[in-house]
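User: My collaborator sent over this chain with a note saying "see what the structure looks like." That's all I know about it. Can you take a look?
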Amino acid sequence: LEQKGLVSQTTEEKQTRGRPIHLWRLTRNGHSHFPDEHSQITLELINLMRENLGENSLNQLVARRTNKTVQHYKKALQAVGDDLKSQVKRLAELRSEEGFMAEVRLIPSGWLLIENHCPISVAAKNCQQFCRSELDCFRGVFDQIATVERVDHLLTGSRRCAFKVSPR
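Assistant: Without extra context I'll predict from the sequence alone. Here is the result:
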């Protein structure tokens, strides 16, 4: 994959035990092999909304979409019960179904929800409201039971987006 230009190796990370960790990240070419359909029409629509309706209207539309997504996720998470671990895992499953290649890792202060691919990265680069709304969405889903903070962000040079979910 590296020879084909699909992945690149990140810097080595030391651990307290065992061998150093070697992490890999998808290159721009690597990301192009995953679904990112309709990106051009999405960019055109975002730009048309800005031109014709203004930035405030675009913000309102993204906020409405976020509210709808929060309700969808909350309903899906109710099916797994009140266990935060199960809910975070279910959210990762939902995100993977949407193309985010999500996974969950246990960390000392909770869980790390990792999105290894961003199917909306083209739109997110043009409309940062999507990234803000994603964080707002996760915070809304876990409103009463956990805090959520973004710890990695693809658009700021990280190899993925990741969110720390800590019980309240």
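A starting point for your reply to your collaborator: The CA atoms of residues 153 and 161 lie 4 Å apart.
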